[in-house]
Structure formats: C-alpha cells, structure tokens
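hey so i finaly got around to running the thing on Mutator family transposase from Rhizocola hellebori. pasting the sequence first so u can double check i didnt mess up the copy paste, my clipboard has been acting weird all day
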Amino acid sequence: MDRTVGDVAVSAVEPGVEDNQQPAEMNLAQLLDGDVVARLTRQAQASGVPLTGEGGLLKQLTKMVLEAALQGEMDAHLGYGKHAPAGRNKGNSRNGSRSKTVVTDIGPVEVEVPRDRDASFTPQMVAKRQRRLSGVDDLVISLTARGLTSGEICAHLAEVYGTSVSKETISVITDRVLDTMTEWQSRPLDPVYPVIFVDAIYLKIRDGQVANRPVYVALGVTCEGGSDVLGLWVGDSNGEGAKYWLRVLSEIRNRGVGDVCMLVCDGLKGLPEVVAQVWPQTVVQQCIIHLLRNTFRYATKKDWAQIARDIKPVYTAASEQAALDAFAEFSDRWEKKYPAITRLWSDAWPEMVPFLAFDVEIRKVVCTTNAIESINARLRRAVNARGHFPTDTAALKCLYLAIRALDPTGRGKARWTNRWKTALNAFDITFNGRVTAGRR
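ok and heres what it spat out for the 3d tokens, dont ask me to read them lol
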C-alpha cells in the first residue's frame, strides 16, 4: 500500500506479507532509498512544512505509517485488500474508520483506525483502548529513573512534545516495573562472591508519619570481575542496625550465595558478628575512608592536614606489626589532645587491619566503599527531588529504576571489569582457590 507526500511515494510494510520475508530487525535503508528521503525533506521545506512539531513532516509520516500498518492488519484479518475483487460476497467487510489520538514520543498523533462490519477486527499496532505507544512509556520510565518527579515529567512532555499526560498516568506506567522489580529482588545469585560491599542510605518514607528510614544496599563483585547490585531492603525507623543486616545477609545466602571472601562495610557495630553467623569464613573489612572521616570529626580543622599525614603510615603499613608501631607513634603525639581519636582506632582495629595481610592489589579495592558509595550517590540524586515517599514500595520502585539506568551504554561495566582482573587473581591465591571454585 502506497501513500504520497508531494509527489514522492512512501511504501509501507504490510503485516502478514513482508514480515514473513524479512528479518525481525530491518535497517530502514533497506526500505527507503536515501534519495527518496532527501527529496521528501526538500519538498516539505519548499512547501513550508516544518520537519517537526505540530503538522510537521515527522508527525505526518508517523500517521501514515501507523495507518498503513492498521490497514495491513485489516487486510490480513479479512483475507483480501481494500477494493480487491476477491472480497465480494465474502460476508464481513470494511466499515469505515474511527479517529483516535495516540501519544507518541514525538507528540500526539491522530490516526484513522479501520473497522469491519461484524466488529471482529482487533488491531495490534494501536490496540483497543491504547492511548500511548510503547516509546512514551519507555521515555517516562527513563525520566523517572533519572530523578524527575511526576510533575516535572508532565511539564517536560507538555513543553517538548506538546503531550498531555497526567500524574496518575505516569504512576500507572511506572507501576508496570513492579513485577520486574519483584523478580529482580528474588532472583538466584552466584554461589561465590569475592567481595560484597554493604551500606545504607536514608529516605523519608511515610509510615503513619514521615520518618527517616534506612534502605540497605548490597553490591557484589562477581568472580568474573563484574558488579551486581544484589538487592534493596527498607528497614525500620530505628536506623541502620546489625540485627536487620542479619536478615538481609541471610536472604542473600538463601538466594544461593554460599561463600563470600570479604565483606566491606562502614564499621557498623555488631556487623562482624552477624557476618560470622551467615558466612563463618568471610573476612570483614572496615572502610578506611569512613574511618578517616570519623577521625576528623573529633579534631579541629587546623589539625586535619597533620593528623592525615601522621595516621597514613598506620593504614599503609606493610604488616599488622608495622601498623601497630605506627599507631603507637600516632597515639604518643595526639592522644593527649584528642583521646577520642585513639579510642576510635583502637575499637575499629580488628576490622581495620585484615587487609594489611593481603596483596597490594587487594588493598586497593577493599580499603574503601567507594564502589557502593558511587551507586548510593546516584540513588540519592534520584530521590532528592521527591521530599518523601508514601510507601515502602514507592521508594523501592524509584531506587530500582535508578539502578536500571546506572550504565545504559555498558561502557562503565567494561571499565569496572578490567579494573578488577588483577585483584581477582590475587584474591584467588589469597583465599585458596575459592574464587576459581565460584567460576565453575
């Protein structure tokens, strides 16, 4: 079936005819000659027809393609083409059309949907009661994942595409990911992770009244060097606690994780004992960056630079004994002025020193929780504009969409994997082949 703009014919692919003769994904250049497109564009400009916007060439072409596809579906449904002699005395036949406006990712487009006499035709390209093409839904989900509120998305669609979409519609669109989110949250995990980073961020969620609630995040490094957000869990308003981490880690174990070489955390009290209950062989390492941040909280700003220089030999020591000697020197200089700093490092010592026994490549990647902190920064950006969430599910939906949008191009994943290759070899030697066992 051919439609014409100016004197240029555009041929549409008819479902049920060309679909059986062409691959599933076809390059547009195979259908349209470049000269045809150029001529069409020139003629539109010469006639004063804009390329985009209301009444523009792009909208007209979209209308033509949609209507041609619908006519093709009707041909397949009836078994003959429009005005074809084969359709005479066949019983059912065409019965005009009805106008319908659908929202597309270039704005609203009015199309004529064909009808048949016995009302048995069920269109697929623009289904009954369908008011949006899938591209609009994808756009709404993408904008939500990047932190825009429902009101901001409504304004964006109206300003850029001239499309009116209500906040309720946006909520309905994003709710479609809930089933996918549930599957993601309960999916089976790898049997072995060389490293798992854990942390929590705080969101305002209404639970009777609005309160700060921790959302627990676990990031695993796979045996191939990839990164895997293992899940999201909303805690209670009492704050981050080791007791809830026991529930989170137990769920991770029940999803198939039988072994974790190291778990890196921010120094939460009681967490090492919880980890030992779930994975007895796991080494718990406190994030050195968190420890340094807490150190500076006890000192005046004018002493920060000197304290940083004096404490560095402790966490960069070649062995635990060397670290103890360096810490003794640090304490002799600063304990009298800042006794809380000495107590802080003494209390954190059992979880601070494990990485000193490992290869320098392991030290580089486990001395900090930056890997998960960067993810948390993206999550916070997605939720900051929202004030508070009405339910736990609403909060998790927003965070899940943000996680889906973390690395759409895949380039970040490649960089991450390359950075971990050397460290994973060191892990395999240090932990007696447990990483290799996870690859089997």
